[in-house]
Amino acid sequence: MTANVPVDPSPTLSLPPMGCGTWAWGNRLLWGYDESMDAELQAVFNLYMGSGITLFDSGDSYGTGRLLGRSEQLLGRFAKDYTGPNQESLCIATKLAAYPWRLTSEAMVRACQASAERLGRPVDLAQLHWSTANYFPWQEWPLLDGLMDLYERGLVRGVGLSNFGPQRLKQVYQRFRERGVPIATLQVQYSLISTYPVVELGLKDLCDELGIQLIAYSPLGLGLLTGKYDEKGPFPKGLRRFLFPYLLSGIRPVLDALQAIALFRQKTPAQVAINWCICKGTIPIPGAKTLAQAQQNLAALGWQLEAGEVMELDRAAARCKRHMVQNIFQTR
């Protein structure tokens, strides 16, 4: 199947309980990527696919500097080279950026076609990366029309949104419904240290009502919930080195609760944090740069926190004095 050949649209995409976020695959500034990592990233891809984790989330803005688009290029190469099970279930999702020069519906179509060229295969799930309602509301409707065009032309199997809150989602949903195009997914930042807008604004209940699958990005809070870091350091390189000291001093209740449950369960804090997202009815998409990280993420599956443990974590989250920085494009 070539990049821009129409695919059969599906009203609902069958997605696994967890996916893989690929923000780090090509990002040097935040995640320290370099080309020497590619072989292990291929191994990560193969492991996930063989384990039935077939959702990979990317974006056409992923990759820094000359590596812009690298995440999509790697996913395309890995998918082409993969020969194991679950090939028919692979779902490559990509987020199309609301760049200021993308002003028309056709610009969105062209953006998705460019992503498909980098992938060497059609995009399965095309998503608008962020809403422009907070700063250029007039720009957003043509971009959303472009998403619907992609679905109606059969260029993607499904369409979704990212960083939309319930108020804006209701308005957008009505427009999609009028054209008979289902919104398959909505992804927002969600973790034990970032419950807005899922809890505070009631976004999960609305998604359930509208039949939209909620995807949780950054379920490990950029790595803060892995248990590897504390207030004394050492801290990771890159931009996280400046953010972590500030946040770690205010999230101790969550870190302590994760550690206690992890010890009792014979799991890691990261596995407990991911499982908590699943218990909340979301599809978490933690990143993985190494096989060890991928194996750890996979061990978050196949079991479930008890209701009392979920409540304990919820109470710990409510006691935190600080929370993850919100995406500036997140709407209400």
TrEMBL record:
SUPFAM superfamilies the record matches: NAD(P)-linked oxidoreductase (SSF51430)
Top-level taxon: Bacteria
InterPro entries noted in UniProt: Aldo-Keto_reductase, Aldo/ket_reductase_CS, NAD(P)_OxRdtase_dom_sf, NADP_OxRdtase_dom
Entry GO terms, CC: cytoplasm
GO molecular function: oxidoreductase activity
Residues annotated as domain NADP-dependent oxidoreductase: 17-316
Keyword Transferase: no
UniProt keyword terms in alphabetical order: Oxidoreductase
Name under which the protein is recorded: Aldo-keto reductase
Species per Swiss-Prot/TrEMBL record: Halomicronema hongdechloris C2206
